[in-house]
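Q: May I have one protein plus its fold?
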Amino acid sequence: MNENWVEVKNTALKWIEEAGEMLKDSLHDSLSVNTKSNPNDLVTEMDYKIERYLTDRILHTFPDHKVLGEEEAGADIQSTDGVLWIIDPIDGTTNFVHQKFNFAISVAVVKDGIGQIGIIFNVMQDEWFTAIAGEGAYLNGQKLASVTETDLPEAVIGLNGRWLAREKRSGEQSLHTMVRKSRSVRSYGSAAIELAYVACGRLDSYISFRLSPWDYAAGLVMLDEVGIITTDFQKRKPSFLEKSKILAARPGLHDQLLHYVHNHEGFDY
């Protein structure tokens, strides 16, 4: 079956817009907040509600498609054969709970292991980052330009401060040295938003030592469209089914940053 990816994307946008309104409405209510893997890994009833809402509509409209979600959907999926939707219902749940800002709905569509659609909706900013493979990446309908090369001293890097706090190395290959040589470092608390910011030029790179596919799948599609290089710390393409370290950076900068992160490959951060 040959999918019409423009139609699929436009259909997904309607669902995501409806889901975004549900999230905005919920900010006026008292939320039930629980933890998952650790006290800082939060989940709310809205994470489940949004994922179920999107999953139900996908499977009703496209019964031959599969869905992999952060909370429940597709826990038994072992393959990217066919069409697979990868959903993060609220990327930045801690921000959603504490700040009511800087959280996103992230949706990717993958066919036979190749990303075809990426959508990241920055809900409170009403910013839509979208991409279809081979058709470019867009911010609120405006096509994003292809990126140019840059060097570390001119680079603004997205990096969670926890990685610096857990640094195990010292000297010229340490993360602290990398940060000191960069122009600046930022952390927004949402991997999806930070990857979208790399795509549109607000960041020059984003680094994470542990992400799941729903955190970065949509970002991978749009980063490819603007020429950002995205790999793990060994220059391998991240998996759509397994957790991965992520280094997304503009050309020229990517190899420079590998110098600082590749020796952290075996560390559990």
